[in-house]
Each structure stands twice: as C-alpha cells, then as structure tokens.
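Cross-check.
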Amino acid sequence: MKALKKKHLLVIALLSLSLLASSTLANSLSSPFKEAIKKVNPAVVYIEVRVHTPVETYRYGRIAPAQREAIASGSGVVIDAKHGYILTAAHVVENADQATVTLPDSREFDVIDIRTDPQTDVAVIQIDADDLTEVPLGDSDALEVGDWVLAMGAPLGKTLANSVSAGIVSGKERKTSILGKLGIEDYIQTDAVINKGNSGGPLVNIKGEIVGINSSIISASGMSAGLGFAVPSNLIKPVVKELIKEGSVVRGWIGVSISSLSDIEPSGLRGVPEKVKKHGGAYVLGLLQDGPADLAGLENGDIITKIDSKEIKNANDLIRIVSMMKPDQIITCEVYRGDDVKDIEVTLGTRPTTEKPNTFSSVTKEDRQSASYKKLGIVVEDFENRMFGFRGTFLIRGVRVKYVKSGSIAKEYGLNTSDVIVAVDGAKFSNKEEFQNLINVADIKYGITLTVRGIDGLRKVIIRDTNQ
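Predicted model, tokenized:
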C-alpha cells in the first residue's frame, strides 16, 4: 500500500514538473510575440475610404445629376512618423475621393495624399499628424518557410481594429495572377489568419519588423482558409522610395512572354545542358514584335540565366529585376540557345500599365507654406460661381476650403471643407493670392473675422488665438 502511494506521489510530481515545463516553454514562445506586438501595434492604423460615382436621378420631372457614395475599409502601418507616411495596399485606396485614418489612440485624420502602384498592389498615403509611431521595413529575403509571422490590422472593419493573428511562412515567391498579366507578384504565403479589412496591414516577423503587406487571400467563402498572401518588404522598398519621390513608378520592360524553366515540359528542353536545367532560368515563350527583346535579337526558346550578372532562376526573378530598372537602360542578358551561350544587349522599353495610378492629393508642399495653413490650418482653392436670387443672378467670388487640419484652430471654430470664404475682416477679394495676403496681415490674437457661405447660408466666424 505504501509502495502504491509512493508511486502515485511520483506520478503527480512528474505531471507537475511536465506542466511547469510546458508553461515555461509557452511563456518563452509567447514572449517574442508580445514584444513584437508592443513595438508594431501603435503604428497600425484603420483606413476608411469613400468613393463617389456619378449617377442620374429623376427629380421634379427631370433628370438631375447626383453622386452615389460607397464606403470601403482596410489597414495600414506608419513607416515615416516625421512626414506622416503610411504604407498600405493599393486596392484599399484605389479610386478614393476621400479617406480617413484612425490611429490606435482613436485620433482621426484626413488623408492628404495618396500614391499607388497597382502593379505591385503597394500604396503610400500621408496624414498631417504629430506623435506618430513608425515601424521599419525588414529583410523579407531572410525569411524561411516555417518562420513565425504575425498578421496585423482590422479584419472585418473598425470594431476589430488592431487585431493580431499568428502563423508561419507557408511559402515564398508565390504567384496568384490576382494582379493580372502585368502584375508583379512575388508573394509570401502564410497560414496566419487574414480576412477582409486586413488588406494593407503589416506582416511582421518576431523582431517587430515589417516583412510584408497583406494583399489577398484564396478562399471559397471569402473568409480565411489559411491561404494568405503578402507583398514582400524587399519588393516594397524601391516602390515606396519611387512613390514618395516621383509620385508614381515608371518601369523598364523587355517585351517577352516567359515561363520558369521548371514549368517547361521535358520534351521542350531537349538539347539544353544539364547544368542549365539544374540552375533554372526564364524560358522565352514569345516576343513582342519590334519590342526591346525582338529588336535585340532574342528568339523563342532562348533561356535567360543572368541579367547584368544577376542570377535568373525563374520567371519571377526576371520580372522583378527588369521592373525595377528604368526605360532606355541597356542591360546584358546571358542567354542559352541550345549549347551556345550568348551575351545579348537589350535597350529596355517602358512597361505598360494596367490602370492609371491614383494621384489624389489635397495638401501640397506649397499649401503647407501658405498663410492660411500656418495660421489657421486650412488649405483653400479659388472659387467662382453664379447664384440665383430673388433679384436675379449674382456672382460669388472667394476661396473654397478643401482641407481642414485635424486639431487646428480652424477646426475648433467650426470651419468645414466646402465652406466658401468671401471676406476677411470685411475686406472682399478676388482670388486665392489676395486671400492669403489678407490672412498674412490679419491679427489672430485679436480675432480674424471670416465671412463664410456654407450649406446653411451666410455666417461670420471669428477666429481668435489668445496664445499668440
């Protein structure tokens, strides 16, 4: 009996040690996740987009123009706190007429600039905000299949903003064709849960670095089925740089239809050296007539294995390398044609675009230097319109407010976008330049009186800043 009791005590002790070890292991595994989330979550934002479509309505016996508003949402992550740049997916903000960003601390800001690259599904948007947290772009090439990653964002809308799911890297260099024939796809595949609304949110490694931007899922139901795809950070980096600097991305183009060597039937590779088969390459299926490759002398059946000493092991390598080059740039292709090796120089053309990039912008560098922005926090544009009244028609000249900075004194005193300012301290003006001159000399400490025509008619707004 005593022996049996001792045996029971030993079993209990071993179970206790096993549970303690499991708990310790779980804590050691979750610790890096917690640190990564603490680092990244303050930079993850919710994005709401409004798109207006012209429609016709039947009113008072005749057809009248109107607009239909559609609202969509997604996620993003701050990558430059100083300038307010946020990285997101291009399809989240495409065709936006207006967009707002909600930060984790519940502050809301209008988006003042949208720049998209539809061919990679990458976009950079900008807000005018202080006290932002930014997260760096990491090295996606360092990822290996099986590495842990976190998908962050707002699945299914604002209510679930700043949600986190964990998974592993299921595959690399994936191509789904979701971006069309001219899409540049080199996706990271993950089984981390990604749903609608996660698009544009960051895929993060356990160091708290952005290794991708959530772009799409494959699912019969529209909900996560464990097949999520993210644009890798090393593809994003040059795109972001170009979008910020130039506003759009112009790419080089070689003018060939290609396939990875590994996807070609063995019968199509007769006569190809074994070392080339082992190395891999881009197999030329067809050439655009009088395109860059055709003019340079490439032929159907050629196998491209290098571009300017950069290894080409599959079709994705060639697309990625060429698309990051510029039109008119001369490249050298190492080409296997049967047993022969040739170096062929190609002068790149301009890669066609699948659609016009979004160039929405409401606040320019010039706007930020204006007196109205510095003093009041508003951006204006010239306004002129003929109105109908009881005594006939009359002309309204002034400036229309197209942007009101969040937290500005203008916002505090109730100025709104679409308000039309027709006088400053009783003085009328004819254009934006005259308005800026009046604001520049006005004394905000004692109060600036603006005569404003809004949706409720004419009103006077006295803006005073006693801190001046």
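The chain has a mean pLDDT of 85. The two ends are 89 Å apart (CA to CA). Passed to J.P. for a second look.
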